[in-house]
Structure formats: structure tokens, C-alpha cells
Amino acid sequence: MKSKRLHIFHPATLFFLLAVLVVFASWIFEIYGICMVHPQTGESICVQSILSHEGIRWLLRNVVTNFTNFAPLGMVIIAMFGIGVAEHSGFLQACIRGGFTNSANLQRNVICWIVALGLLSNVIGDAGYILLVPLAAILFQAAGLHPISGIITAYVSVACGYSANIIISTMDPLIARISEEAAIAGGVSYNSVGPLSNYYFMFVSTLLIGIIIYFVVNKFLIKQFASYVSSDEIDYRKPLSHKERRALTISLLAGVIFFAIILISTFSSFGILRGVGGNLMRSPFIMGILFLLSLGAGIMGMVYGFASGRYRSDVSVIDGLSHTVRILGVYFIIAFFAAQMFACLSYSGLDKCLVLWATDLLVDIDLSALPTLLLFILLSGFINLVMVSATSKWGLMSFIFLPIFANLGVSPEIVQCAFRIGDSSSNAITPFLFYMPLTLAYMLHYDKQISYSQLLRLTWPFALAIFVGWTLLFVVWYLCRIPFGL
User: Fold this and answer.
1) Quick count: other Cβ atoms within 10 Å of Cβ 327?
2) Which residues pair with 110 in a beta bridge?
3) Quick check: helix, strand or coil at residue 34?
4) In angstroms, rounded to a whole number, what is the distance separating the alpha carbons of residues 142 and 164?
5) Distance between CA atoms of residues 344 and 2, nearest Å
């Protein structure tokens, strides 16, 4: 990076300090007897001190399981197996060399592709964080750009655009179901709430967010980095030899056959990868999509390795599976402390109490519909800095705000849309995002001095620009009375 940086904390140290902060905050909040009422169940939620006798016993009993049950851990390892084989065998490099040209628009095309794939990745859940971010680093490096700028571009595209898509994502039915339950509980009409109730707005939002990210990447992000000299000495502009091109063709054919089998097994009449009721939600296809993508990448990498002559035995394949251990070693250390921090936050109930406390502040403000909606967007973004699970937040906030906005003449799908704007816009800057440790580990692979402060400095312009642009689109949409969805 161009500017001289003041190194603050290693990412692992940051999460350790955050865990310590949560521990002491829980102790102080319990002393003052902080309790809130759950809006759906009426249950009293009180902060539990981790420094109490029971809290210390809980922590010691669960240190190991806090780490092994850390949500992204298993997914990252499985994904890295496939990526490792694909990279170690030379398959990824061959794909890039076969697809790249000396076009003057090469860098622009790479940026556009990464932004587009990041925005569309929420169709398959959180896989974008795990698969696209490392791929973006390789593509940016091949195009003559700094790989960390590729990591940031992919990370921001996935995180800040998590609610937006041109097709229905896994998020839409989950959020709609919570909205429907909250509307029923609050006696609010919910006829307009469904998986597609925000579709029109989110379709346009995807285009807007893509333009904003592309603009900030070109005007801000790329200028933050000096040239990068790779240690692997791969010439991505070198044409493929006849043997390499033949191996690439065979491996891609193997990939087409593999994914054709998966699609037939999912969408055909016998559809063994569909859910029990015939739908895709919670089906083996959706739940196993990350493994299937990793397996597909691994198969193509393995076929390429044997066809090109780089692999000659199963030992080479095992070497490929372990190829990414150098990145995972750093990630495991960061993830261990991050897992303890997330577990302590959940056990103490601090996140839920802070959400409900902040919600009560907005409830007491008496304004008209549009100003209240704008404050609600801001509140959603602020709360997301502490509690990142969209469904958990909406499960608390919807039961409070849907009846309030109904009295102001605002229908549930509009309130839901406002929540999703604030919730997604600040994803890239919160240290409590599950995939923040993984992103930092990827960045550390290219720059050993990276810390959360550098990541925050690189991502806040994106978060601010997306928040402002997306909110302005919402205001125009609302004032023009354009339907938000189907």
C-alpha cells in the first residue's frame, strides 16, 4: 500500500481484545441489572456476566466447542480443499491464461466481473465470501492490479450487496416469513408480504450498488496500492501450449458433466437433491452447494493435473488438498479468538439487549412516516455493527416496528425493505461479521502488516457511498409510490 501505515493490532489480537471487551461489558451490565423484554415472546432478556461463577464454568466447558462450532470454519476448510487442488494443479492459472487477452479493457472487465459475481453470490448463501474473495485476488493480480484490491472489491460486493439481487436469493423467503409472523402478531395486514415483495426495488438496487462499487474501486481503491510483485512468477499473459489447452478442454468437459449431473439430480422429475416437499429451501442442493462447488473445482483441477502431466499419482492430489494450509494456518488462529468473542456475545445476551435498547430510542421519536423510515434505516445500519445476523435482528425488530409503521400508513414490505438497506450497507465495516476473520487471513497472505484498521480504512468509503446512494433510491421510490415488489 502506498501510504506509510501505523500498525495497531494483528487481527487475532483484535478479536482477543474484543472478546475481553465483551466479557467486561457483560460484567458491568449485569451489575446494573440491564434487562429487556423480547417483543415476540414477552420473555425478559437480561445480560449474563461471563465473569460470574456460572459464566466462568460455561466458558471453560465450551472453549473447544466454541471454536469447532464456529459457523464458517467447516465451510472454509471444505472450500479450500477444492480451491487448493484447482490452484496447485495449474487449472486456475490455465483458465485465466486461456481467458485473458491483451485488451486495453482487461482491468475494467475483471473489476466488472468480480462486482457482478459478488452481488449475485447471495443466491447460494455465504459462498461468495469463501470462494469469490480468493479468486478475485488471483484475477486482479493477473490483470496487473494489486490482489488486496481484488479481495476488497469482492468482499464489499458480497457484504454490502447481500440483500440485493436480480433473482430471488436465500435471504428473501427467510425475511418474508419473519415479516409475516410479526404482522400476524401485531394485527397488521400482511397480504403484500412474500419472497418477492421487495423484488422490483432490489433488482434496481443491484444495478445501482454495482455502479457505486465500480466507481469507488476506480476512483479510490486502486489508487491506494503501489505495484505488486508476485513471488510465484506466473506469466498470465503467456499463451497456453497445445498440451495445456488440451488438458484444459478435458477438465472443463469433466466439470460440465459433473454439474450437469448435479442439475439433473436437482431439477428433474426424480430430483433427489430437492427438499422433501419438492422445494429448494433447506434442500440438499442448497445446503450442500458449497461442497458441490468445491468438489467440482477439485475434480476439474485433478483432471487437469493428470491430463497436463503435472500430477502422476494420488500423492500429488493430496499435496493439492493441503496446498492452502499456509492460509488456513493464519485463519485458524484468527478464527479461534473470533469464535470465543462471538460465543461470549451470544451467551451474555449483550447483542439482543443493545438491539432492543436502540429500538426503544427510535420508538419514542414522534415523526411522520418518511423521516421515521430514514431513521429506521440508520438504526438498522448501526445495530448491524454489533449484531450481524439479519434474521436474528429482524426477528426482534419486526415485532416492534411493523405495528408502529402500520399506524403511520406504511405497509410491512416497505419497512422490511428499509431494514434490508441499513442491514446490508454496514456489513463490510463491522468487526462482528462472521467472515471478517477469513477476509483478513486472505489479506495477510499478501501483506503481513494488515490489520482491521487497514481493512476499515479501505471499506468505509464503499459502505458510506452505498448507504447514501441506496437510501436516496429508497426515498425516490417511496415518494413516487412505485411498487416495491410482487
Assistant:
1) 19
2) none
3) coil
4) 29
5) 37
Distance between CA atoms of residues 396 and 304, nearest Å: 50
Q: Please give the grid coordinates belonging to residue 365.
A: 421519536
**C-alpha to C-alpha distances, 333 to 14, 18, 345, nearest whole angstrom:** 12, 15, 19
The CA distance from 252 to 244, in Å, is 12
Closest Cα partner for 98 from 313, 245, 300? 245
Alpha carbon distance 114, 136 (integer Å)? 6
At residue 324, φ and ψ (nearest 5 deg) are -95, 10
The least confident of 225-239, 361-375, 401-415, 419-433 is 225-239
For 18-69, how does the pLDDT look when each residue is reduced to its tens digit (9 = 90+)? Answer: 999 999 999 998 998 888 887 777 788 889 999 999 999 999 999 999 999 9
Contacts of residue 133, defined as CB under 8 A and 6 or more positions apart, other chains included, come to 151, 154, 155, 158, 438, 439, 442
Cα separation, 347 vs 339, whole angstroms? 12
Task: Specify whether the CB–CB gap between 296 and 86 falls below 8 A.
Answer: no
Tell me the angle at which helices 53-68 and 325-348 cross, rounded to the nearest 10 degrees. 150
Tell me if 269 is assigned to some domain: no
Helix (H, G, I), strand (E, B) or coil at 37: strand
**Separation CA 242–CA 244 (nearest Å):** 6
Please report the sign of the dihedral spanned by the C-alpha atoms of residue 437, residue 441, residue 443, residue 447.
positive
Rounded to 5°, angle at Cα 126 from 301 and 440: 80
Residue (of 119, 148, 81, 96) closest to 328 by Cα position: 81
In this structure, is residue 147 part of a structural domain? Answer: yes
- Domain of residue 145: give its range: 11-69+101-236+324-479
Backbone dihedral angles phi then psi of residue 135, each to the nearest 5 degrees: -65, -40
Number of domains, the chain: 1
Residues 476 and 481: their CA atoms lie apart, in Å, by: 8
Identify the residue whose cell numbers are 467486561: 24
Report the chain's terminal Cα–Cα distance, integer Å.
46
Q: Is 452 a domain residue? A: yes
C-alpha cell, 104: 486495453
In a domain, 343, yes or no: yes
Contact criterion met (CB below 8 Å) for 357 and 443: no
Q: Is the pTM of this model over 0.90?
A: no
Say if residues 11 and 441 touch (Cβ distance below 8 Å): yes
Tens of pLDDT, residue by residue over 324-367, are 777 788 889 999 999 999 999 989 988 888 888 888 888 777 78
The widest CA-to-CA distance across the chain, in whole angstroms, is 73
d(CA 376, CA 421): 10
**Bridge partners of 35?**
46
Query: How far is Cα 381 from Cα 388, in angstroms, rounded to an integer?
Result: 10
